[in-house]
DNA sequence: CCAGTATGTTGTCACAGGCAACAAAACCCT
DNA sequence: AGGGTTTTGTTGCCTGTGACAACATACTGG
């Protein structure tokens, strides 16, 4: 089944150069997502001719984006050359959270080769940018010679205007209308791309995690900062007009007057709350692991009641998402995986109860599969995506060149 | 800002033929949506060379899909040839509803040149297909000689598996798991494409109606058969894995135990109900026009209370949609346009109250602009889209050849 | 060691769109 | 009215990309 309207970019005509770019891009994307692929696999899944693949791979190699290795012979016929994404091409990831700024280095092959967590306390945007820039400079100095940098991807818990990297509102951080992207770019001299954290988590899960290979995915992450959502439809990230789409935590599901962190009533985020568990378990603070453990072995009536109530609320929201998106898989992250683990039957029954049979009959519910690297990988996809979209024209920055001072 | 992941079809390589197809397709789509465009306009908005446009237009002309006329000179310089979509190329539209089967003939230029409404009462799928086939045969006989038929598009009030034209559930019609598409195809000998009615309404509004030119649109239609929704994101129709996405009427917004026509609790459809108005106004049955009139001039307290309650429910749902989709425009159709007209301030305030500022600050609310032809136009887009996607390989059927008997 | 199979390489070819030069058809100004 | 200006259509040539076929290469298996 083909698709419909087709506006915007698709409206444009295409010339020969576009074809070359498209094919280079398609190959690089496959290699990036798989890490390593043989030339024959590339030939098969691209539909292009062997000779064309040869030519394109050579060009990618000359661009320093991939390298070839002899095959570890394993079948009939001449063994095919293995094409791998270069680990000399890296992106920085930044995650600004309430309690820390985390910076990572991710290779084009999708591997997190360094990660540094710098604790802080509800930093201002200026402070967070300064911390990030300092850690990036330090990590940059440690990169192997010859390494080239694509850029910086930033995952922010809040509403991000993707086009220019302005954080419209990050309630927990207290950021309102701050141009974090430009700030960090000025401090580092590198291109910076920002997006919502949960949206990036969704992307990461699709490329390397438990939603691998799926094209229609709903992602829900519940942390100390509320509930964030990410959606991918038909292989495309849902961003909306300005990048504020996918705020699944702020979906209204009940008539309750409870308000969420953004001040909206009766929303998923207002009803499924990490703090309720902390109170019930009399924990002042807890890591997700500790909280999940508590949930799994809780046995008093009060805790059970809380678990059931929150499970029901979660089920109602998931039902709504299924009706709206008809996804193949829903990925859960954060403490709500505890609800899924403990009350799976109840959750699935509730989901069925709150959604249309046709839409829910094949949907899978899974836990997030990437753990603490998820946001690093997801954020790195932002600069990598720029590179992959335009492999031969995107400029890379040498690791060893000093960043210009602002 | 470029987009993200890119799966599926985009993964494939591209060869020269694909370029030609893409460009033919892009031109034909522009001409189809605009009706008539000059060659120079095509050159400008496609970015292709004059000589290329000339070549492509010639090919489309040879395919009989467009024709050229001399310009009505109106500026400096040599007047550009006008390229128009052929009115000799048509599609049939079918809308199966509870009280009637409506069949239309739509030209590639987007004009409804015939429409016939065949009253019936909750027909079975077999009966509806038979009625549709009969009317199509009769309309087909009246087509001008030389007219060619692309196929049939069907708009169904229910959940449609787009891939094979099976209606999974149409509650009001009482259809469950019926292969309406194949049935109608067998009776007519024409290719048949089915989709949900509201989704097609959304497409129609984007191409020819009040959402013209927008790429991120939410469409909500409230009729006697409940509330249907259609969503277009980034110029692409939201369909989900199997085509069941976009069921916006079944979004849960309240804790109420009221059930909607599909048995779900607390949903938009269960709270915003046409029948409540008919009861309050003591109408046994009414056209949308009559009902809208009643709403606009209602002045008793009970009716006002109902209007306000339903407006609040609608606002809550719209807030949820804004948080999820961050659309540029929301189009309302059916009797809820009455709520918008009468209680616009209340609706907008409620929408603001129930959504994030960043997402709602620029969203437009508009009424549907196509009236009774909306579904005819939208349904015809299904076969037209096939033609437009593959202009040089899609087979057209001559109007005058007898349809083969099953 | 040879047949069989799968893959990489090379040179040729077809074909799409770009480009430049020219022709054509309008407007504008004197 | 007529030449200058502007815009557009047409034509022929060129470039570059991927397809294709033929050949070379590298492995398995008997």
UniProtKB/TrEMBL annotation, chains A, B:
It holds the Pfam family ROK. InterPro entries: ATPase_NBD (IPR043129), ROK (IPR000600), WH-like_DNA-bd_sf (IPR036388), WH_DNA-bd_sf (IPR036390). This is Unannotated protein.
